[in-house]
Amino acid sequence: MKILIIGSKGFIGSHCVDYFTAKGFEVFQADVNESSESNFYKIKRLNSDFSAPFKENQFDICINASGSAHVGFSFENPTKDFELNVVNVQKILVAIRDYNSDCKLINFSSAAVYGNPKVLPIIENSGCKPLSPYGFHKLQSELLLTEYHKFFGLNTCSLRVFSAYGPRLKKQLFWDLYQKANQGDEVSLFGTGNETRDFIYIDDLMQIMDLVIQHSPFQGSIYNVGSQVETTIAEAAQIFLNEFSPKKKVIFTGEVKVGDPNNWLADMGNLKRYGFKRQYNLSLGLKKYAEWLRENE
């Protein structure tokens, strides 16, 4: 099976490269960062064009793991965030329509599309009320995938990732904790600590990718990507710090960070019907992440 991974040098994209290479797929990569690897396409940062890979190859699967994944950035530069998370998705869809219409597209969306849900766990047809430009842009990208399936017959699906973590991640909660723990005896975080998230380890996310490729009808399909376990930020922070500096104290400022939801918990019923079984609880996943940090930082 021939697969193209766009954003192949990023956190999720690089894991996709390793995972599908190990499974024996013929893996092609595309990214804005340089690489001397074979089967690699350099994408321009400005006025990006995704046509070349699809003109020169016929892929079975395309995974789009590119784009911005930073809520704060979307407030600072909503135009750029829109370009990365909406315009580029539309360009990929056009390239597939024009040159490789049988290719199945998996696009990474985000649980940010939900905002603050009224009911937990969150099912895929829950109302979407994003709290940030990033969340709105991810929702728009999903609508594009639905549009190109409905009107052009493309095979598409969106993955609403909740809180993914693991080796190579250099942003968000645990990376922030790691940086701050190296600087002082106290670690300061936004919020009260009672906010909750649904964390999923990167290897479990790869299992989900595999199951989606095998079982999804690719009809503009949408899937939650989480672990169906709700954890407070305070508990998650302490589990992580116990791997490094158990004596460090976490201080919560009480300040609300713009764009951040209060509570998240994914309903994983659809993917469980495909056979998804979580392999990593938070303690084990954070132990693996901490090992990588010690070895690579």
TrEMBL record:
Origin superkingdom: Bacteria
Occurrences of domain NAD-dependent epimerase/dehydratase (ranges): 3-226
Family designation: Belongs to the NAD(P)-dependent epimerase/dehydratase family.
Name of this chain's protein: SDR family oxidoreductase
